[in-house]
Amino acid sequence: MMADLTIAVSEAVFAKTLEVVVANFAFNVSGKADYGAFNVAYDGRLFLKGGSLDLRDDGTIRLHELDARWDKLDFSLGVKLPKLSFGGGVVEVPLWSILLPGAGLFSGSPTVTFTVHLAALVKHELSLIGSPLIQHFEPGVTPIGKHCQDLHTALKIDDTKPQWRVFCDPQTIDFDLFDFADTAGDLFEQAFTVALDATLPHGLLHDLILAGIGSVADLLRTLLDIPDDVSEWLSDLFNVSLGVFNLILQFVADFFGKCLSFYQLDDPFPMFPKTKEETVELPAVTIPIQNLTATVNDVELVVTADIGGVS
Amino acid sequence: MAFTDHSDLFAAVHENGINKTIGQLMLQRPSLFNYATLLFTQALSTQFCQPIAPPPGGGPLFTVESPLPVLGAPKPVGLDWCLQLSNVSIDLYPGHTLTLPPELDPIGFQQFALHLRACFGLACPSDLVVENLAAEMEAAVAESVLRAAEPPAPPPPTTSPPVSGGGVQPALAARAVGGTNAPTVPSVNVLCSCLDVFGVGHFERGTVAGVRGQFLKTRLDDLEVVDLVTDPPSNLESMLECYLKVVLRLGVLPRLIVPMQSLVLNITQMLQANSTSIGQHVTVVPATDVPNNPDVEDDQIKVFFNLKVQ
Amino acid sequence: MSELRHDVVINRALLVNAALDSAAITVRGTVFHVFTESGDHDVTVLRDGRTVARLTVTVQAEGAPPQVNLDLAGLEVDADRSAQCTCQYAVREGGVMGFTVGQGIGRFAVVIDHTAGGGSRTVLDSRGQLPAGDLFAVTLITPGTYRAANLASQARLRITVAMPSRDEPYNPARPTLVRAGDHGFDPAEAHILAGQSIVLLAEAPARFLVELVEPAPAPHEA
Predict the structure, then answer these.
(1) Which of A304, B37, C157, C167 is 20 to 30 A (C-alpha) from A143?
(2) With 90 as the cut, is the pLDDT of residue C13 above it?
(3) What does pLDDT average to over chain A?
């Protein structure tokens, strides 16, 4: 039997909508961490480019090769210089040993912080396959996880009234990890080494310091505990230690999962609002919505629903 | 064949959905379908032609109207009455949901049929009450006649315009003024009569003289009041149908015209109202390359829209 | 493209080549006093002739560390207006206290009085001579030829300071001990790398002065 309400959205609308979303989307992310000998901070802004959206005969929607790029990705690395000193050591005198105090090169425990702009050096690609998922939300009954609840509060989503909610339920999410090219690692290391070197006094002391520590690059690697590949270290930092990758992936999962719906319909649907005519107050007229379904074929997304009759 | 073969967006509502919506409207806003005088809240509250269920969300049962004036009464007086519309339903092309009177059957391509049952109740006073009131009316007339027969009073020193009329019924001027709040003749019996009314109409797009742009109009093609039979046969049914058609065509339907530009949904503006700005101008506009928009067929009203991104 | 921020403050005193005098302790110089007698000792710290701190050192037979190093420049901060520092130290009998200057251009001296049995006896006045057993350590940074003199015995020591070469491993914390007796220094010459220390042990009362005689030519002049 034919549904009371039918709404169909063509694949072209999805494509145009994707274009609008891509053109207007930005995701800001920032954070910091202290690892003792060094601390890091990042501040970035992600935007989207390209991508295509297809509706498929198997009832799924495919988002294909959506590029996520960084408009800004500032990475700050602060290293605490070790106590470099001259002199010191132990001297053996008759009957005992004496420890000589060293003459410190720096006052206090200085930190050198260097910020590089990594935006041009990394990009990600997102592909996703999902299908529409319908949920009838009942306040107080339908469970919402804590993270989702925080998101709803931040986005001012009203969870106090019953609604039909349509989500895109992702079956696969393919999002590239941070992968800094080798050039990124080289550039970063060189730039930071030069910067760190610039903080050391020039002339005789500089030469002596280098004689003691080997090279600034060596010092840096020792302080940061970097293996051979700086690019790999940067990637690990962003993907694992700092969890930036997870932040983005979580956002994608929230957006496409059962947390943020892309369409919602109040149930009962308010047809006419409450009105006041002279001294008479007329209550709102609401229409119960039932059996909301959504199906996808390779041409369109079709949503159907029935209107509840008078019982 | 896909729904969106000729447009980006498609929406359709089945006549069953419209009828269920009308049912919900009748249940939740009975005052839109029931009209009566004030006495129906009190002495006549059990005398409706059809009982009215209280709406679940509260609110009035009917809309209060003025009494039916007793024409010619020397003192303003009216009769209580009620009008109730029920069984409101719609049947979209190709029809077959409503059993139409032969004058209207079958409905044509792109047409819709509407049915409602109108019950009119008149609170008819008893002869005794009318006689008592008649005595009051006679007293009022006698007083004015005797006052008219007396010689006129001398004019005052300053000039003033003469009292108009001075004719047979000087109380006529006051009657017209006091008509809306006229007391009613008390009665305890309501006589009810119900009629089934069918109408057939269609939607069309057109212009309005002197105004730019296109408008969506609802047109009444025909109207039939069923079985208003008299003996001997007379033009009563036709007169009533004529009156209703004129009221609908001149009084009701012109108020329902919708300018096409108001059907344009400005997505950009809606997003801005929700504190989300986008750089494009996105609108949903009615599609123009479909033969009928809205399209009435397959027992549905279908509308077609396109998404414009600039 | 990038930004750099730092709070690095170089200890500029390291580059100043003033003479290192055991009677006026500055950055790169340290006087070590050996406490041979147990009991309380009053220590007066002077900077450029003015008393800037007073403290107490208790020398114990047991239960105290064998060495305590004091930064005289840091001590000045801890003292109140009357130059009385609330710090108290304990050193093992036979142990050593090192008086060093971490930063700044101040010239310091130390006077230690042994207060026992109600009296007071000066055991060290670094403005004069260091008693036998005490030591004076100097850290030499600028490459070149230095002369260390014992003003008490007029003995001289030639010290050669060289830049570490790229081939050899370099560690600044490798001091060289030189004994200063009545008859001169032993060894008679010392060779160290820039940034390392010479430790002069006074086998007899001594006052030490170490000066740069001839700096080594800069690398491009070599």
Answers:
(1) A304
(2) no
(3) 83
Residue entry with tokens 């819709």: B112
At B264, the amino acid letter reads V
Q: Which tokens is B32 given?
A: 């839109």
pLDDT digits (tens, 9 = 90+) for A231-253: 778 788 788 777 777 777 777 77
Disruptive mutation site among A5, A7, A10, A304 for chain B (greatest number of B CBs within 10 Å): A10
* CA dist., res. C125 & res. C70, Å (int): 16
- Average pLDDT of B185-208? 87
Are C14 and C27 spatial neighbours (Cβ–Cβ below 8 Å)? Answer: yes
Chain A interface test: which of C3, C6, C25, C72 (most A C-beta within 10 Å):
C6
Number of domain units in chain A? 1
Alpha-carbon gap, residue B287 to B305, rounded angstroms: 5
Contacts of B17 in chain A (CB under 8 A): 3-5, 306-307
A155 secondary structure, DSSP code: T
Task: Give the relative orientation of helices A216-224 and A182-199 as an angle to the nearest 10 degrees.
Answer: 110
Which residues of B make CB contacts under 8 Å with A? 2-5, 7-14, 16-17, 20-21, 23-29, 31, 55, 57-60, 277-280, 282, 298-300, 307, 309
Contact A13 B2 (CB under 8 A): no
ipTM score: 0.89
* Distance in Å, alpha carbon of C127 to nearest chain A alpha carbon: 21
Supply the DSSP string of chain C, one letter for each residue: -EEEEE---B-GGGG--PPEETTBB-TTEEEEEE--S-EEEEEEEEETTEEEEEEEEEEESSSS-SEEEEEHHHHHHH--TT-EEEEEEEEETT-EEEEE--SSS--EEEEEEEE-TT--EEEEETTS-BPTT-EEEEE--S-EEEEEEETTTTEEEEEEEEPPPSSS---S---EEEEEETTEEESSEEEEETT-EEEEEESSSB-EEEEEEEEPPPTTT-
Distance CA B220, CA A146 (A): 57
> d(Cα A161, Cα A142) in Å, to the nearest integer?
11
Place of tokens 């190093």: C69
pTM for the whole thing?
A: 0.68
Nearest CA in chain A to C199: A91
Q: How many residues does chain C have?
A: 222
A33-37, A105-109, B14-18, B140-144: range with lowest mean pLDDT: A105-109
Q: Which residues of A touch C11 (CB under 8 A)?
A: 103-107
> Contacts of residue A19 in chain B, CB cutoff 8 Å?
309
pLDDT tier at B34, thresholds 50, 70, 90:
very high
| Overall average pLDDT of the A180-191 stretch | 75
Q: Check whether the bond before B106 is cis (ω within 30° of 0).
A: yes
- The answer to whether the Cα torsion of B236, B238, B239, B245 is positive or negative is positive
pLDDT at site C83: 60
Label residues C79-113 b or e (16+ Cβ within 10 Å = b): beeebebeeebebbbbbbbbbbbbbbebbbbbbbb
Q: A299 and B10: CB-CB below 8 Å?
A: no
Of A145, B295, A206, nearest to C195 (Cα)? A206
Which of A1, A14, A18, A20 is the best residue to mutate to test the B interface, defined by the most B CB atoms within 10 Å of its own CB? A20
What CATH number has the domain spanning C20-125?
2.60.40
pLDDT-based confidence at residue A179 (cuts at 50, 70, 90): confident
Which residue does chain A place closest to B4, by CA atoms? Answer: A10
The mean pLDDT value of chain C amounts to 89
Ordered by start, the domain boundaries in chain C are 20-125, 134-215
Q: What is the pLDDT of residue A110?
A: 77
Considering only CB atoms, A285 lies closest to which of B3, B7, B24, namely: B24
